[in-house]
Amino acid sequence: MIYITQLIYIIPGQEKVFNEFEGVAIPIIAKYDGKLLLRTKPGEIIEASIEVPYEIHLVSFPSAEHFERFKQDEGRKAFLHLKEASVKSVLLIEGK
Question: Domains of the chain, with CATH numbers?
Fold first, then answer.
C-alpha cells in the first residue's frame, strides 16, 4: 500500500477551474483501486514555515503501479489542461 499526500497550491482566481478538474480526476481514483482518504482545505494553522496550500489530499493505492496507471488514465489526461490552467504547484509526498 502506498499513500500519496498532495499539498495543492492554486493560481488565484482559478478555483472553479481546479474544481472542474477534480470533478473528473477524483472519481477515476477508484478505477485503479485507490481511495480518497482525505480532501481538506486548511483551517486553523498553528504554525507554518511554508505557504499554506489551497487543499490537501491524502490518497491510497495498493501499489505504485496502480498510482502510475491512474496518472496515465486517458480520461484524466483529457482534462489535464484544467489542472495546468489552475494549479500553481503541488508538493507530493509518498509514503508506504
Answer: 2-43+50-95 (3.30.70.100)
- pTM, to two decimals: 0.90
Q: What is the pLDDT of residue 93?
A: 97
pLDDT tier at 67 (50, 70, 90 boundaries)? very high
Mean pLDDT along residues 39-53? 95
- Which residue type occupies 59? V
Q: Is 84 helix (H, G, I), strand (E, B) or coil?
A: helix
The whole-angstrom separation of Cα 3 and Cα 64 is 9
In angstroms, the CA 91 to CA 96 distance is 17
Q: Please return the burial class of 68, using the count of CB atoms within 10 Å of its CB with bins 0-12, 13-18 and 19+.
A: exposed
Which residue from 33, 12, 29, 31 is spatially nearest to 86, judged by alpha carbons?
12
